[in-house]
Q: What sequence folds into this?
């Protein structure tokens, strides 16, 4: 029996849904193969998240708590994960593919002499390693890839798996951690939040995305109203971020964010391959476009052909009625 370890990421005082998706999948793999599934949480307030993690089936939760983890810094995080890996000795260490993961995965792999499969959309265990599917070339191709070794690190795109609750009374292991400031070669001076208090697109259950069809303030107001009634995050095509209408942090696509919400509503977006690369993994795609031949309809589950300025007001009204 080997151990599958899952990293539980915390952002804005909450467990990231994407890491619980990974834990749910790891639990399923562990049950199928007779392995154990364990989790690690590293945060300035780590112990407060144990209960939330126990709901998803880990048999052991490593807790590394220290004020230094208030904000992401790669050196302390790396040190904490190395320490936990030395105790847990996992054959697979799975992460949600977050910015923080991207920052440390290579260093952790080098430190542990481990194989690494970054940014996959699914993975399975195989004899002596892991096999995975990984979207490449702006998600035009899905590559089958595999890594063999005593330890394989894998990071998984958000939305790849469903949450599956599986309550356990996991053993909690508090890991001693200490790091002197003098050990830090880089310090964090300031965090500038680009998107203010808008919903994090990587974690959003629903996204309303605006494209060039949204031509003016009236259109942007309709987008906000639709997002508000659905409690959705707002995204945009590059046409609108380049025009300065939406913040660049809201751009979805090859050179923007890669998202996979349960519901993606593309409003006035043509469906260029570079945009599709960032949202094709969404569970249900709805497109509103006045051009019936717009490529976005090829990947949509539901399509509304029409002028967004005429389609959205009654659409929003109906949603409000359902909500009330
Ligand atoms: C290297 C590279 C990287 C790129 N990265 C990205 C990226 O990350 N993200 C991204 O989005 N793009 C990216 N692009 C740009 C991409 O190629 C497209 O130009 C862009 O996605 C087009 O945005 P759009 O669909 O909003 O605009 P358009 O292609 O202009 O489409 C507008 C759509 O709105 C419809 N429309 C117009 N008026 C209305 C109306 N009143 N009601 C309903 N529908 C209406 C039109 O029928 C049309 O289909 C990249 C390009 C390159 C070269």
A:
């Amino acid at each position: 029996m080997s151990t599958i370890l899952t990293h539980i990421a915390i952002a804005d005082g909450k467990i990231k849904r994407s890491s619980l998706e990974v834990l749910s999948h790891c639990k399923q793999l562990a049950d199928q193969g007779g392995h154990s599934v364990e989790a690690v949480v590293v945060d300035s307030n780590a112990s407060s998240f144990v209960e939330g993690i126990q709901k998803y089936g880990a048999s052991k939760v490593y807790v590394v708590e220290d004020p230094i983890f208030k904000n992401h810094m790669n050196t302390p995080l790396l040190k904490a994960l190395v320490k936990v890996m030395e105790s847990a000795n996992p054959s697979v260490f799975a992460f949600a593919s977050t910015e923080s993961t991207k920052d440390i995965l290579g260093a952790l792999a080098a430190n542990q002499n481990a194989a690494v499969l970054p940014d996959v959309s699914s993975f399975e265990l195989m004899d002596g390693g892991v096999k995975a599917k990984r979207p490449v070339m702006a998600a035009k191709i899905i590559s089958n890839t595999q890594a063999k070794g005593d330890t394989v690190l894998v990071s998984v795109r958000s939305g790849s798996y469903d949450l599956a609750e599986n309550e356990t009374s996991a053993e909690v292991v508090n890991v001693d951690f200490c790091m002197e400031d003098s050990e830090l070669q880089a310090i964090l001076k300031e965090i500038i939040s680009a998107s203010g208090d808008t919903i994090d697109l990587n974690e959003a259950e629903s996204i309303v995305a605006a494209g060039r069809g949204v031509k003016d303030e009236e259109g942007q107001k309709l987008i906000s109203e639709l997002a508000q009634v659905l409690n959705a995050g707002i995204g945009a095509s590059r046409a609108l971020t380049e025009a300065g209408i939406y913040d660049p942090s809201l751009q979805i696509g090859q050179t923007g964010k890669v998202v996979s919400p349960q519901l993606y509503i593309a409003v006035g977006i043509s469906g260029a391959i570079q945009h599709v690369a960032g949202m094709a993994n969404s569970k249900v795609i709805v497109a509103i476009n006045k051009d019936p031949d717009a490529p976005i309809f090829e990947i949509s589950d539901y399509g509304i052909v029409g002028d967004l300025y005429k389609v959205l007001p009654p659409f929003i009204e109906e949603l409000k009625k359902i909500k009330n």
The chain has a mean pLDDT of 94.
